[in-house]
Amino acid sequence: MNALALKAGLLVLPMVIACATAAPTLAYDFKPQVAVPTASNDINGCWTADRSLYGAYQLSFCLDHGAGSYYVTGGGLHCQADVSWRKAWLGGYKFVMDRSSCGNGTDWSGDTFKCSLERSAFGVSAPAGDDYAVAPKVAVPTQGPAGYALSCSYRPAVAGWGWQSFKAYRS
Question: Residue 99 carries which DSSP code?
């Protein structure tokens, strides 16, 4: 065997070994992943009140593990500030809003509200505690919120204004 053939054989040998040891990818090895909604009673995420508060003011808020932001718009105001929240002792959730500067010399007061999570008449998710592995759901658009609503009572920090109630839906 001449030197050129020997060198060619040594170069080909590692490629042959690599191809022989690689496992083929077969169709049954493929595991497709599909985005499915998780039915959860977790309140993390964004919510929007179903009606205006104190006239023309629309409240929305986004929550993430005890912290978040709220937004109030309407009546020429555009307010945004932090909101903190925690589970309440007797169930439900308690929210504390920071005071917000809305521009034009107007502030939104540091109000509070409390909410309880309830099953919504809209959406497709199942109540908490059901076995979701038996009947997986595929993400598809729905005509309403995703299964749960927050039923809330809003209390302003400013004297002279009473409690107002609203439902908040995932937005």
Answer: P
For every residue of 60-79, DSSP letters joined together read EEEEETTEEEEEEEETTEEE
Three-class SS of 129-165: CCCCCCCCCCCCCCCCCCCEEEEEEEECCCCCCCCEE
Task: Find out whether 80 and 71 touch, Cβ atoms under 8 Å.
Answer: yes
Pairwise pLDDT comparison (112 vs 6), residue with the higher score: 112
pTM beyond 0.85, yes or no: no
Beta strands 164-170 and 112-119: pairing type? unpaired
Angstrom distance (rounded) from CA 86 to CA 112: 12
Residue 3 has pLDDT above 80, yes or no: no
User: DSSP secondary-structure letter at 18?
Assistant: H
Q: What single-letter DSSP state applies at residue 146?
A: S
Phi first, then psi: what are they for 119, rounded to 5°?
-65, 130
**Among the residues of the chain, which ranges form H helices?**
3-21
* Structure confidence by residue, pLDDT tens digits, 123-157: 443 334 444 444 444 444 443 345 789 999 999 99
